[in-house]
């Protein structure tokens, strides 16, 4: 088989003709596409995985192979299919390209239908061996032994014939209560946990890349605590042939009781066996600022009253083995025992603005402070010049504070350890309790009144983090000897911004596999250029606000805020529903298409952090609400609106495919497949239903909104279908039933709220219209969470020639046309005009779609631009600049940049509307 689960070895085609245009209309079954680094070319390529889109019908899934080249050199690549068109042709592929130190500017990927079935293993291939208890992966540079059970995830890491790391474990500490700032200390237990592995498996294996996934829970170490294993983890280890680095994706789900389980530390720890390495040949490197390192030896021989000699000093600072002591100044060597050895080192990044460092000779002796800095690049190395050692690094280290490193027993002949803290033990315990005490909101009526005041939708029991998750990206690098500062400096760059590859906007666009409502940015002038500049302004403004407002932290990094309080010159971080945005009004549907059409690296990196945050922290992964997200609020999980509109995979679909099918994203998207089961637990409209309608949630008649519920479910089902996941046939059948059911509704999408059969996907008339006489329920939110994008992608996937799909499209275009039509037109068509129309600027993209599909109808197009420019939202006459507010004798805490005319709802909707309108209508008038 050419492509699929096992692997592809293609020995060919570097010299194949490179077509200048992708996918010429006729002929050739061979395509070549360029992939380029997102942003600057990285200092090294540790092995990179990326995705490529392909047009319908172009390449048969089982008859296509891929090869890669850079310059005139063939490059080893491993390929797999991540998504299929309904005809079985390839929609998206994933590719892993081999590591390199001499990094090319771009790669060319060439398809071939003359598949060469050379299943022979090449000597450079990553090798994976499984025996009873372990899985061993050898990249040629490092060999890593994973355990299949027990508490140790990584038994050993070897390089150059030496074991440089052992006993890789997870560290978790908790306490059962907190002093809560009280003067009277409370008595509580402190607990220590270790991993209890449920499963270790090879999730993906090929010639270039192997992925070993370890799943389990954290089990308490002390006996008689009665504490069950908790905090499920999934740790993925990616290894590329020829690389000394292991990329680790560490995901943790919180399933504790916030008032009893206070996490005090989360870490990853490795032993580094230094054996008989001389103390003066043992090295500590901890990353500081801008590629700088704390550069120390366990026993430092510099700066003393006696000098061992310049050569000796230079060697120690360079991490080299010191010359034979016999060659040093004798007065020095006879006194070595008076030079202290430092066993322990620690760096704590407890805020995004500062880290502190300290060291001590050993436990029981005082720490001494080491001069500190502001933002550590997040890497630490422990090792020896002859024994080698390990570097461990965390992406977004200071952005995800409180973080840290500990090096312990560095002078030991038995066990020296290096610990990366994803949550620093030096920080106060993680406090996940509700931020207020309910304030007497014990009825729906009171909750609705409070909602109308603080915009927080509160309900007792719903302000809970039970089921939210966080993912951290870690690199572990094995070195046979202490690396130079330059080498470690390169790795900090990789860790801070892991290399990513993507093809060009034109290729993404022409494939029609990455959404069908955007086109590549072109040179523009006049009003089109103004709109483009507004998109750039908004993207940059949010990026800069993250830094200006310090939107960082373990749970917060990747989010931004919802509404600005101009009186205080601050975002309303403490005002109910105005605080964290949690994807409100779909900023992702601005950022991802903006990246696709521009290739702008800063947009990609921002959208990536937002995607990770939104999919992990704003969504539930276990428990009764698994698959649902939480509406915006002061705490990411605080609001009682638990809905698919927040967890909708349409927000993260581009990210998933561009990364070649990021396994963690795939897992999260699949959780949404069963979000209908969660809706059974928590009726989204329970507080606002017409009391005259009796409704009891029922799996065969779930009363849901087409826009905020069904379209999120449909996004998950469509991805399952495209990826041919385990339930793809069920997913396809449900989507087709939904379409047919909706097509049979008298008022189509205008019905708004419908019955949905969670077993079959069938849509049927709502309870207030059992006889399908025609129900009209309009909400400004329906199309504000990706409904149009999901519907158009579904139609595009099936093909508008399909009868169900073409009727479905007609129905959608009716919604698009009538939402913003005149009251008279609405009444003429539906017997009643619509109430509750707002967000008209955002909805102009629907009008634009109606115009476009009506052959570019100029009347409708003009209406779309009018809605865009002169109804609500961000006006052309807005300032379109931010202004500085000085901290000098003013009410602001620090100098800030503000644009008080911006709200995130409007910015998100504006961005999506500009992109879609310009694609559908061309330049604005
Ligand atoms: C290849 O694809 C065709 C069409 O999708 C299918 O009929 C055939 O069974 C496939 N062959 C293999 C070996 O998968
Ligand atoms: C070594 O120490 C002795 C005694 O303190 C001193 O006389 C001698 O000069 C020293 N040698 C050197 C090379 O410093
Ligand atoms: C961090 O410190 C470095 C120098 O140590 C300085 O150049 C940089 O501007 C500082 N960054 C911030 C955000 O203060
Ligand atoms: C419920 O029904 C009563 C009696 O028919 C009616 O007066 C009332 O307006 C209805 N309430 C709503 C919210 O429709
Ligand atoms: C749809 O039908 C038209 C007219 O029959 C045809 O030209 C076109 O290729 C068809 N498109 C697809 C995707 O099948
Ligand atoms: C454009 O759309 C309007 C409104 O639906 C319609 O009245 C008109 O006939 C259309 N114009 C053309 C040329 O199709
Ligand atoms: C602060 O304000 C005073 C007077 O209002 C002004 O003289 C001074 O230059 C300001 N300082 C800065 C740093 O802006």
Automatic annotation (TrEMBL):
Transmembrane domains' residue ranges: none
Coiled coil: none
Keyword Signal: yes
One Pfam match: PcRGLX_1st
Signal peptide interval: 1-20
Domain PcRGLX/YetA-like N-terminal RIFT barrel stretches: 32-110
InterPro entries: PcRGLX/YetA-like, PcRGLX/YetA_2nd, PcRGLX/YetA_3rd, PcRGLX_1st
Residue span, PcRGLX/YetA-like central beta-sandwich domain: 126-490
Highest taxon, organism lineage: Eukaryota
Limits of the PcRGLX/YetA-like C-terminal alpha/alpha toroid domain: 498-922
Sorted UniProt keywords: Signal
Protein name as it appears in the record: Uncharacterized protein
Protein's organism: Thyridium curvatum
């Amino acid at each position: 088989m050419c492509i699929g689960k096992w692997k592809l070895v293609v020995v060919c085609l570097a010299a194949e003709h490179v077509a200048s245009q992708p996918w010429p209309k006729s002929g050739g079954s061979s395509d070549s596409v360029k992939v380029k680094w997102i942003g600057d070319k990285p200092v090294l390529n540790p092995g990179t995985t990326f995705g490529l889109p392909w047009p319908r019908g172009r390449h048969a899934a089982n008859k296509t192979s891929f090869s890669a080249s850079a310059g005139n050199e063939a490059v080893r690549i491993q390929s797999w299919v991540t998504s299929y068109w309904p005809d079985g042709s390839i929609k998206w592929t994933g590719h892993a390209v081999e590591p390199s130190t001499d990094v090319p500017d771009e790669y060319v990927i060439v398809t071939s239908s003359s598949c060469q079935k050379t299943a022979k293993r090449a000597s450079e291939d990553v090798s994976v061996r499984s025996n009873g208890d372990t899985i061993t992966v050898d990249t040629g540079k490092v060999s890593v032994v994973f355990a299949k059970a027990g508490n140790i995830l990584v038994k050993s890491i070897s390089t150059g014939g030496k074991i440089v790391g052992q006993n890789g474990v997870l560290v978790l500490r908790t306490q059962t209560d907190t002093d809560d700032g009280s003067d009277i200390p409370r008595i509580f237990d402190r607990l220590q946990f270790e991993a209890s592995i449920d499963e270790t498996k090879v999730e993906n294996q090929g010639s270039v890349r192997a992925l070993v996934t370890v799943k389990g829970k954290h089990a308490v170490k002390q006996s008689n605590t009665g504490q069950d294993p908790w905090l499920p983890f999934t740790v993925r280890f990616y290894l590329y042939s020829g690389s000394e680095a292991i990329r680790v994706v560490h995901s943790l789900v919180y399933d504790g009781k916030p008032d009893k389980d206070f996490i005090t530390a989360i870490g990853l720890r490795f032993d580094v066996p230094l054996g008989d390495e001389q103390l003066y040949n043992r090295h500590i490197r901890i990353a500081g600022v801008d590629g700088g390192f704390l550069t120390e030896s366990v026993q430092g021989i510099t700066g003393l009253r006696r000098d061992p000699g310049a050569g000796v000093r230079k060697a120690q600072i360079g991490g080299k083995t010191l010359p034979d002591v016999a060659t040093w100044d004798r007065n020095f060597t006879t006194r070595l025992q008076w030079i202290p050895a430092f066993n322990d080192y620690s760096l704590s990044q407890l805020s995004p603005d500062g880290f502190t460092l300290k060291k001590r000779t050993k436990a029981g002796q005082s720490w001494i402070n080491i001069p500190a800095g502001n933002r550590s690049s997040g890497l630490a190395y422990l090792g020896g010049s002859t024994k080698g050692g390990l570097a461990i690094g965390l992406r977004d280290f200071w952005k995800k504070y409180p973080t840290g490193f500990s090096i312990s027993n560095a002078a030991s002949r038995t066990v020296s350890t290096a610990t990366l803290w994803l949550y620093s033990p030096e920080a106060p315990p993680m406090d996940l309790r509700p931020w207020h005490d309910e304030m007497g909101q014990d009825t729906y009526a009171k909750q609705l009144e409070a909602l109308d005041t603080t915009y927080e939708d509160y309900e007792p029991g719903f302000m809970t983090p039970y089921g939210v998750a966080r993912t951290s990206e870690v690199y572990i690098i094995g070195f046979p000897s202490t690396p130079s500062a330059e080498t470690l400096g390169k790795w900090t760059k990789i860790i801070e911004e892991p290399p990513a590859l993507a093809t060009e906007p034109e290729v993404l666009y022409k494939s029609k596999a990455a959404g069908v409502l955007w086109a590549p940015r072109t040179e523009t002038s006049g009003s089109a250029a103004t709109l483009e500049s507004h998109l750039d302004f908004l993207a940059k403004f949010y990026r800069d606000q993250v830094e200006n407002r310090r939107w960082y932290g373990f749970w917060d990094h990747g989010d931004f805020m919802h509404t600005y309080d101009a009186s205080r010159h601050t975002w309303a971080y403490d005002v109910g529903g105005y605080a964290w945005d949690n994807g409100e009004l779909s900023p992702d549907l601005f950022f991802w298409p903006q990246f696709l059409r521009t290739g702008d690296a800063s947009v990609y990196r921002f959208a990536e952090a937002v995607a990770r945050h939104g999919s992990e922290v704003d969504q539930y992964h276990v428990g009764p609400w698994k698959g649902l997200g939480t509406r915006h609020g002061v705490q990411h999980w605080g609001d009682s609106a638990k809905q698919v509109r927040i967890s909708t995979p349409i927000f993260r679909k581009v990210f998933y495919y561009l990364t070649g099918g990021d396994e963690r994203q795939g897992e999260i998207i699949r959780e949404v497949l069963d979000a209908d089961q969660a809706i059974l637990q928590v009726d989204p409209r329970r507080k606002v239903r017409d009391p005259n309608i009796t409704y009891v949630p029922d799996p065969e008649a779930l009363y849901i909104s087409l826009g905020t519920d069904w379209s999120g479910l449909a996004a998950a089902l469509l991805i399952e279908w495209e990826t041919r996941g385990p339930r793809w046939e069920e997913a396809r059948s449900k989507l087709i039933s939904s379409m047919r059911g909706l097509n049979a509704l008298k008022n189509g999408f205008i019905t708004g709220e419908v019955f949905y059969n969670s077993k079959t996907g069938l849509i049927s008339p709502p309870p207030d219209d059992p006889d399908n006489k025609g129900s009209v329920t309009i909400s400004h939110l329906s199309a504000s969470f990706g409904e149009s994008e999901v519907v158009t992608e579904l139609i595009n996937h099936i093909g508008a020639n399909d009868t169900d799909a073409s009727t479905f499209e007609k129905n959608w275009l009716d919604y698009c046309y009538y939402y913003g039509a005149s009251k008279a037109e609405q009444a003429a068509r539906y017997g009643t005009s619509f109430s509750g129309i707002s967000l008209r600027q955002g909805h102009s993209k629907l009008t634009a779609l109606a115009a476009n599909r009506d052959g570019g109808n100029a009347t409708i197009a003009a209406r779309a631009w009018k809605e865009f420019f002169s109804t609500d939202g961000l006006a052309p006459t807005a300032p379109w600049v931010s202004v500085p507010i000085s901290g000098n004798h003013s009410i602001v805490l620090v100098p800030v940049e503000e644009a008080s005319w911006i709200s995130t709802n409007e910015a998100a909707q504006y961005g999506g509307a500009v992109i879609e309108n310009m694609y559908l209508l061309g330049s604005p008038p």
